[in-house]
Amino acid sequence: MIFNKETAEKTAELLLQINAIKLNPGNPFTWASGWKSPIYCDNRLILSFPAIRNYVRDEFAKNIEKQFGKPDVIAGVATGAIGIGMLVAESLGLPFVYVRPEAKKHGRLNQVEGFLQKGQNVVVVEDLISTGNSSLLAVEALRAAGANIKGMAAIFTYGFDVAEQNFKNANIDLLTLSNYQNLLNLAVAKKYITEQEEQTLREWNVSPSTWNI
């Protein structure tokens, strides 16, 4: 679910402008999972564009407080959401922690890095949602550390059915600045893609694991 349509359209346009999202139905990308995909999203690029990262920061800060209430802590999912999560925490005047994919195997063996007290209300910031599995592993780690998760806010989601089900099963509310549907609508309107390419992109989104095999 998006925070609101205006933000979704604006965010999609900015991501396309800086090539954080690349659409290439004719020459698909290969994801780490092995899936073939006509879209590739690298939201880390946002941090290199001050005006855009400030926009993303401000929209997150405004909408997180509006939708979830002001939490005690902002948590970023490593590594993609550490930068933007810290900017959001700074904007809201809140502490920040980040969550590793797994606990360190040396030192204090931390998976959650930073100061977090049991019972604190946390909003998790993520850069990208695909299946949601890695994002929800971060939620599990925070819950294990005693956090009360108010919800997750992400920059972009592919909108897969499996992700929606995974978040529902985990009882986590997910809200995003933009999503796949708004991206495609804008990409066609702004002539980033043709209507035929739009159809290919929609077909992929229905069954990404079996598309183009």
From TrEMBL:
Reactions catalysed: orotidine 5'-phosphate + diphosphate = orotate + 5-phospho-alpha-D-ribose 1-diphosphate
Coiled coil: none
Origin: domain of life: Bacteria
GO biological processes: 'de novo' UMP biosynthetic process; pyrimidine nucleobase biosynthetic process
Gene3D superfamilies, A to Z: 3.40.50.2020
Binding, orotate: 130
InterPro entries on file: OPRT (IPR023031), Or_phspho_trans_dom (IPR004467), PRTase-like (IPR029057), PRTase_dom (IPR000836)
Pfam family, one: Pribosyltran
One GO molecular-function entry: magnesium ion binding
UniProt keyword Glycosyltransferase present: yes
Keyword terms of this UniProt record: Glycosyltransferase, Magnesium, Pyrimidine biosynthesis, Transferase
Enzyme Commission numbers on file: 2.4.2.10
Required cofactor(s): Mg(2+)
Record-listed 5-phospho-alpha-D-ribose 1-diphosphate binding positions: 100, 104, 106, 126-134
Subunit description: Homodimer.
Role: Catalyzes the transfer of a ribosyl phosphate group from 5-phosphoribose 1-diphosphate to orotate, leading to the formation of orotidine monophosphate (OMP).
Family the UniProt entry places it in: Belongs to the purine/pyrimidine phosphoribosyltransferase family. PyrE subfamily.
NCBIfam families: pyrE
Protein name, as recorded: Orotate phosphoribosyltransferase
Organism: Flavobacterium xinjiangense
Gene coding for it: pyrE
